[in-house]
TrEMBL record:
It comes from Flavivirga amylovorans. InterPro entries: Dimeric_a/b-barrel, L-rhamnose_mutarotase, Rham/fucose_mutarotase. The keyword Transit peptide does not apply. Pfam families: rhaM (PF05336). Keywords: Carbohydrate metabolism, Cytoplasm, Isomerase, Rhamnose metabolism. The keyword Transport does not apply. This is L-rhamnose mutarotase. One of its GO terms (molecular function) is L-rhamnose mutarotase activity. It is an enzyme of class 5 (isomerase).
Length: 104
């Protein structure tokens, strides 16, 4: 198992809509995430800065990377692109965070 942590940014005036669209996420996206070994996926919002902190446990880096190539993931990115900072392919601008401490 690999623990992934990363940060993204939602537009300050779009936080409520961001939360709404995740409550719940599409069932088909949930199925893809779980099928690719994702568990314990959390996203937290720092309200003052509109930064999102995400954490997930994944089966492997390879399976995690494969998710980006699925149709449902690409569709989700497009659906969310008006709410947050994105790259040219609509994927969220995401900065991976380095783990410096872990207490099992």
């Amino acid at each position: 198992m690999v623990r992934k942590a990363f940060k993204m940014k939602v537009f300050p005036d779009k936080t409520e809509e961001y939360i709404k669209r995740h409550t719940p996420i599409w069932k088909e996206l949930e199925v893809v995430l779980k099928a690719h070994g994702v568990s314990n996926y959390n996203i937290f919002l720092e309200e003052e800065t509109s930064f999102l902190f995400a954490f997930a446990e994944v089966a492997s880096e390879e399976k995690w990377s494969e998710i980006a190539n699925t149709d449902v993931c690409k569709k989700w990115w497009k659906y969310m692109s008006d709410l947050m900072e994105t790259n040219d392919d609509n994927s969220p601008v995401s900065i991976e965070l380095k783990q410096v401490f872990y207490l099992p």
